[in-house]
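Note to self: the last two entries modelled the partners one at a time, which told us nothing about the interface. This time every component goes in together.
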Amino acid sequence: MAIGIIQEKERLAFRFDKLGVIISILALYGALLAPFATYRANRIIQGEARGIMEALPPHLGYGLLFLVVAGAAVALLRTPALFRMAMALAALAALAGLIGIAADHLTPPENSYARVSPASGFWVLVFAFSLLLTDALTRLHPGPGLRLLVLAGVLVLAGSMLVAGRWDGLSIMKEYANRADLFWAEAGRHVTLALGSLAAATVVGLPLGILCHRVERLRAGVLNVLNAIQTIPSIALFGILIAPLGWIAANIPGASAVGIRGIGAAPAFVALFLYSLLPVVANTVVGLAGVPRAANDAARGIGMTDRQRLVTIEFPLAFPVILTGIRIVLVQNIGLATIAALIGGGGFGVFVFQGVGQTAMDLVLLGAIPTVVLAFTAAIVLDALIEMTVPNSSQGNAA
Amino acid sequence: MIQIEEVTKRYGDTTVVNGVTLTVAPHTVTVIVGTSGSGKTTLLRMINRLVEPTAGIVKIDGEDNRSIPGYELRRRIGYAIQGHGLFPHRTVAQNIATVPTLLGWEKDRTEAKVEELLKLFQLDPADFGPRYPHELSGGQQQRVGVARALAAEPNVLLMDEPFGALDPIIRSKAQEDLTAIQKHFGTTIILVTHDMEEAFHLADKIAVMDKGEVVQYATPAEMLVKPATPFVETLVGASERPFRLLGIETVGEAVEPGSAEGRPVPEVLSQRDALSELLWSGRSALPVAAANGEILGRVTLQAIVKRAARPR
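The predicted structure of the combined assembly is written out below.
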């Protein structure tokens, strides 16, 4: 009898999901205690909080509450990973749709000054269900292809919401509507800065890494210099570059014609390039050093030239590690390029700093959210690529 | 034929190989033994110019090995190393096809060669060809390593402790295989090892190296009977000598007329194994049979004991 009770207790305790407890607490807090949306009569005034039932028409409000409670229950109990993923996706899709509806519901008709933006409750809910989604995805062990597919699905969903105008009532989209042309121009500049400096760093860093691998005396020196550069704060590096680049622009004919100036895109590009070198060079060196000695010796012993050995043996085996370096650089550059706006380099940072200057939080988000989405997408895509290029040899890949 | 003439290798002030002269007859197995740091691997690597000699000449079939670029030379010489050195990102078939591909063989010819070699090493081509090296056992990896070294049908095969990473049972099987392959292709093999047992098992001639010099270059029997220096004597192992001597010769050489009780032993069995069988079964003679089962005579305990004694 007593044993039976203990077993019963153990079984019950066992059925709770540890992470699920946190997720469900977060979800319930976000839905019941925190405000869902903020209403402001105009762009920079202090906002008023609105709960779910105030922000949405009654039937949708009850619907969302029901969905959140159901989602919390699914998270709390030990449920199949596929089911958890479906629940999380449904909740996220509902949140995405309903915040747009809340904006339309809260904004008085014919009022173009009022602003509605998501409030803490919304963000907490998004966070809770994203956590549920990533946790479920991790448990499903999706292959790189499936991960890319999920990413594409989410992006397409968000994109179609944008195109269909479902979020047009939200304050951030109103900020966007006022400067759509500028937004895309800055987006182009941001991506060009991040990718261009990465490309330059790869073109320079790969040969430099190979050289460092082959010539041992060079290695410590090069890596130490690059390490030192990495420790300079980005704003300081921009500042340091103003003088030499200004001098180049003034004294070298044709330099200013191609856009080299003390401020603007040129120093931002150079700074991002310098930051990018260390991960590329270091990972090239580490990757090449990780090539099995015996394989290298055999390659030489059976008559490969140094070039053939580099191209057919060393490089393919080192490639995943090199790609990891490139991933670090890309994600880092997408974030760092935001700061380029400080010295007139353009990019999403323009909105962030304008928004800070005007205390217009929505404008800050207009710069910050695309940056985060871009960095997140780049990380997922490159992680999948790295996994796909790891040679079949690596034992850890067995799972 | 490989002629090593007065070859010396120095790294700074350290002389690793010092004026070595050695001639290896074609179609034979020569084993270079020595303690670690004796320069045996360096000597081997100077034959295919993975290491360039400081002084001296290496001639292969009468031709100076510096007459063609190093990588071209190495494509003509097989090379197998400890831990097999297979390329982990390439399949077994691709690994074996490396040198033929470098030489620009036709695809059909390469594929036929890969298949032939896999069969020769008792690996089913359809099963093992598409596998990756980490999907093979240690013994299989080692066999693929040797197959890769033989893919372009080299006259000379250099092996640097090829069986060092294998457990004893698989090692002796690999040694048997190598002997069979050597007979099959008639390849001249130079093998480096620190394992005396292996040397006596495989070698037509043994070169003992100590401190960068070859202190004795002789047949296994000669080395047992007349060790040139105390170092060679130690290396051969005084207590092992009679057994090593018996290990070199076969029962067929000790057979005498007469009959004996029990199951016959094959004439190719080593006298050492015959002795072991005699001692273990408590008999004084064993019948000896030819490969076709015909009884050739017998081998006696007395005769074997006599043969184990130091020749005069």
